[in-house]
Amino acid sequence: MNHKQFVLLVLVWSLFSFSHCKEDETDNTVVDPPEEEKGRDLTGFYLGADLSYVNQILDHNGIYKDGGVVKDPYTIFKDHGTNLVRLRLWHNPAWTKEVYGANGTQLYNDLYDVEKAIKLAKAQGLSVLLDFHYSDTWADPQNQKIPAAWQDVRDINILRDSVFNYTRKTLLYLDGKGLMPELVQLGNETNCGMLYTDAPEGFPACNVCNGAWQQLGTVLNGAIAAVKEVTATSAVKTKILLHVADPKNVEWWFDNITTQGAVTNFDMIGFSFYPLWHTTVSPDQLSDKIASFRSKYSKQVMILETAYPWTPNGDDGYNNQFGSGTPVTGFPYTRQGQADILRKITQEVLDGGGIGVIYWEPAWITSSMKDSWGTGSSWENCAFFDFDGNTIDAIDFTKQKY
Predict the structure, then answer these.
(1) Does 189 participate in catalysis according to the annotation?
(2) Which residue out of 229, 305, 348, 380 is catalytically annotated?
(3) What is the phi/psi pair of residue 247, to 5°?
(4) pTM for the structure as a whole
């Protein structure tokens, strides 16, 4: 064999060996994608949006777009993966009509406005969380005003019956329309309780910051009894949530309401987490907190409100609630920053074994709607829409591979 023949033989053998090695590598090997690419099964996990203002915005020149095309907002949220709509209910919010003066035509966030919203949400196949504020106006950690209809109550048992009857009547009405909510929230951000702000002398105020755990427990147990009575004959077996603001308050509040208040017959613990306001617990600590709550109380856990700005700027003369302070480290006030922190929060809830995340008022864009403090929106820089009404990145937090 001469040199040329030897070289040729080596080349042929090399090509033969290489081709067989490639066949062996590809023909019989099945490679699973990495776990992080598979994503978790989110069946049963609530990816929610509080759309309480939407009907009023639509009535006052608000326009929603998706990809530049004007669309119904309930459809937009469904198309982007939202599976739950949260709606607040006020007892008799006459002021929502009065702020428009002679141009006022109807009440908003009353039973009939909520009925309309539930119908529109359910038409899209969305579940509904009904948020009873037990007030004619906003109920939150700073205000828990008594409905005008209950101002003359002086006995805790009569107050309990008032709450029971109102809750029962509301749910019976909705159930009769085929609009029974899948979830109900009894009270909104009830850190110090409810039905106590500017309480008249002799009113059985349920302020737990003054030690009234037993009184609050009596009222909450009345509301729970009403839900249980209606769900006993309803096709929808509605779950019950209780709600406080800021995860730092969860253990103090639920320790006391379940013991001193004797309130135990509920299904879920809900809390608000606004990372720019609730700074004692960082986003990185949420999963551990949620896992601890689940273990301690044997209840499901859910973030009922969260939000973050995508810009520090505004689109109207109504001062924004967020955007002037320092952003959370790693999450600038940009579209990407808003999307990233929402995905981070959702991942933490999943890691802790929580059951859902609801973004508060992602559709509160600017329009000619009014409230007691301004015209337009104090939240348009936290919405899931830009200043032209088009959807932005954060609305797709529902489609992340968690």
Answers:
(1) yes
(2) 305
(3) -60, -20
(4) 0.90
